[in-house]
Each structure stands twice: as structure tokens, then as C-alpha cells.
Amino acid sequence: LLHEVLGGSNRVSAELPNSFIAVLERAVTLVDSGYAPDPLAEADLRRTIGLSFDAVGVPMKGADQLQKTLDLRSATLGPDAEPTLDAYEELAMIQSQFAWATSNLKDYLATVDRHLALRISHAGPDDPATLRAQVVVAMAEGMPRTDRTLQSHQRFRQVLPRLRIAFGADHIIMLRAMRAFANTATSNEEALEHLESKTARHRRLPS
User: Fold this and answer.
1) CA 110 – CA 96 distance, rounded (Å)
2) Which class for 38: exposed (0-12), middle (13-18), buried (19 or more C-beta within 10 A)?
3) Burial of 196 (0-12, 13-18, 19+ CB in 10 A)
4) Rounded CA gap, 29 and 7, in Å?
5) Alpha carbon separation from 77 to 20, 31, 34, 80, 119 (Å, rounded)
6) Element (H or E) spanning 165, and its range?
7) Tell me: the pLDDT tens digits for 44-90?
8) CA-CA distance, 98 to 204, in Å (whole number)?
């Protein structure tokens, strides 16, 4: 598809990434006009375009295409089909890059929560893919302004022993989870102190 958009040329121009972004936008226009022969082919094309947008530093446009990939696969294959679950994972990966904005954080949390629920339903709580999804949710819960930092702490404590059994203590997934857990420790302590302070003040109020 990108070859066709470039008019048969393998050259993009020396002005990357801006020129390639323009190529990707033309590719989106082609796909929007019905270029793909069927929904699954369209989903694959949008996935390629979305990951390419992300690679050249435009993750929000990438997320738009990954969301459409997810919707197409879910409608065609079912919400818990493996390609659909893979689309959830890739969409969450891109959304995490701009989830710091409050307006985007809600969408990111919705994606990771739904992905985890489907993974548990599809393969059970101890499947390696489910455990990876648990880590992603715990990391998302630990982000600022989520009001879920205590849940993040609890989820990490529950999933880390199972993660160690599934992947081993030295696996990169385990190491990343441990680092994320350590990074959220301070914020969890602060959240707990804040909660205890509010509870104490509430108890002192006259009834």
C-alpha cells in the first residue's frame, strides 16, 4: 500500500519524518475509500499504518488506526479472538505514550481494563499473556491522577509472585514489573497517608 501511495517509488525524500507522515496520511485516505478487499485485510493495513505513525513520532494518529484495527477484528473474529486481543495490547502500548493527559487517561484505562478482562475470560488468570496484561493494568493504575494508586500497589503484590513462576526471576518482563512496582511505592505510601488523614478527620467531625 505504501509503495502504491509513493507512486511506485521506494524513495520517500530526505525530509523524514514529515514526508513519511504525509505518505501515511495518504494511505489512510486510500483505506478510508475502500482500498482493502475485506474487513480483516483493512484491519491489517490500518495496523501497519498505525504502528508506522507511532514509529515516526505521531502516536495519537497511530492509536486512531489501531482502534479501528481493534474494532474491525472484534466485529469479524469476536472480542476474545487472539488477533483481537493482540490489537488491544498494541493499542494500549501506543496509548500509554500520551495517557498523561487527563482526557486520554480515561481511554487508556478503559483499554487496559477491557483487555485484562478478556484475557482472563479467554485463557484464565495464570496464563502468561494474562499476567502481562495484569502488569500493564498495574502500571496504568500507578500513573498520576488515576485515583487507583492503592489498587496498583495491591495488584503488583498479587501478580509478582505468579509472574516469577511463569517467567523466572531474571526475565525482562519480571524486571520491568519490579521496577514499575518500585517506582509506584512512594506514591502509594503518599496515597495511603492521605487516605488515613481523611479518615481521621472524618472521625473527628461531629455527628
Assistant:
1) 12
2) exposed
3) exposed
4) 15
5) 31, 20, 20, 8, 15
6) helix 149-167
7) 999 999 999 999 999 999 999 999 999 999 999 999 999 999 999 99
8) 41
Residue at 55: amino acid letter: A
User: Would the pTM of this model clear 0.85, i.e. be above it?
Assistant: no
Phi then psi for residue 99, to 5 deg, are -75, -10
C-alpha to C-alpha distance for 56 and 1, rounded to whole angstroms: 18
Q: Which candidate, 61, 52, 91, places its Cα nearest to that of 74?
A: 91
pLDDT of residue 192: 53
Contacts of residue 3, defined as CB under 8 A and 6 or more positions apart, other chains included, come to 10
69 φ/ψ angles, rounded to the nearest 5 degrees? -60, -45
Query: Grid coordinates 492509536 are at which residue?
Result: 63
Find where cell 487527563 sits. Answer: 102
Span 124-177, pLDDT tens digits: 999 999 999 999 999 999 988 888 988 998 999 999 999 999 999 999 999 999
* Rounded-to-integer distance, Cα 28 and Cα 9, Å: 18
How many angstroms separate the CA atoms of 127 and 116, rounded?
11
Cβ–Cβ < 8 Å for 86, 116 = no
